[in-house]
Design goal:
This protein is α/β, with parallel strands linked by helices. 55% of the residues lie in helices and 13% in strands. The longest helix has 21 residues. It is globular, with a radius of gyration of 18 Å. The structure holds CO-5-methoxybenzimidazolylcobamide. CO-5-methoxybenzimidazolylcobamide binds next to helix 3, helix 4, helix 5, strand 3 and strand 4. Belongs to the vitamin-B12 dependent methionine synthase family.
Length: 218
């Protein structure tokens, strides 16, 4: 198999042993690190999601796949393109996976992409309440609050979080960036935006998140 397909296969199989060799080979063959993530590793993760969703893969194996994914991203991170010569930060975002949700691979990719492009990312982790996000945003004088969540129930939590920002009188304080597989653009840009007096935007992937940062950081 070509190395890209082998890497996707590794994610599906949860095969960590020999990962370094494949990553080195892919890089040496000239595939940019981000392309390895997007075209090959995420392709494997998609298959994992399908197998799990259809009952053909059990949770412990999904966990193993996630570990290989994280290992691969860690190996690739030093090879990712970064904006050089920037003086200071372009802005600060508090990034969290919402309450009740442990999925953090996507959030951590967003962290890497934003960090490499000159933003300061305060990544406060998984299962975070809106209170914790507000606290971090105040402490770090953040420009944006970013929430990630992959479960369908996380889309409801995000709505509750926006309601809490509103009831605390903080809706106008930080624009909110939302991402994660269970969200849809219409849910965020129509349903949530119509109930939230502040700014709320949807990012389909980490790159859309990056593009949205500039207009959100005023
Ligand atoms: Co879970 N899981 N999982 N899981 N898991 C999903 C999400 C699921 C769709 C699988 C399925 O059924 N097909 C399903 C949700 C179904 C639903 O809600 N309707 C599911 C389930 C059910 C569960 C459990 C409930 C299973 C159980 O316990 N019975 C449980 C939940 C526990 C909890 O959260 N309380 C669970 C657990 C796990 C593991 C721990 C085993 C593991 C996570 C490990 C980890 O993250 N550390 C895991 C995994 C790996 C998955 C799948 C297979 C892959 C997720 C992933 O990492 N994708 C997933 C299936 C799927 O998504 N198709 C699934 C790759 C990642 C890069 O994509 O996070 O979407 P993603 O991020 C993208 C974009 O969405 C966007 O950018 C990223 C890439 O560019 N993005 C943002 C994300 N956040 C953003 C924020 C932004 C901007 C963009 O700005 C703020």
């Amino acid at each position: 198999l070509p190395v890209g397909e082998r890497l996707a296969r590794r994610i599906v199989d949860g095969a960590r042993k020999g990962l370094e060799g494949d990553i080195d080979e892919a890089l040496a063959s000239g595939i940019p690190a981000l392309k390895i993530v997007n075209d090959h590793l995420l392709e494997g993760m998609k298959v994992v999601g399908e197998l799990f969703g259809s009952g053909q893969m059990q949770l412990p194996f999904v966990l193993q796949s996630a570990e290989v994914m994280k290992g691969a991203v860690a190996l690739l991170e030093p090879h990712m393109e970064r904006v050089e010569g920037e003086t200071g930060s372009k802005g600060t975002i508090v990034l969290a996976t919402v309450r009740g949700d442990v999925h953090d691979i996507g959030k951590n990719l967003v962290d890497i992409i934003l960090t490499n492009n000159g933003y300061t990312v305060v990544n406060i982790g998984i299962k975070q309440t809106i209170g914790a996000m507000i606290g971090a945003a105040e402490e770090h004088r953040a420009d944006v609050i970013g929430m990630s969540g992959l479960l369908v129930k996380s889309t409801v939590v995000m709505k509750e979080n926006l309601e809490e920002l509103t009831s605390r009188g903080l809706a106008g304080r930080w624009p909110v960036l939302l991402g994660g597989a269970a969200l849809t653009r219409t849910y965020v840009e129509d349903d949530l935006a119509s109930m939230f007096p502040g700014t709320v935007r949807y990012a389909r992937d980490a790159f859309e998140g990056l593009r949205l940062m500039e207009p959100l950081v005023k």
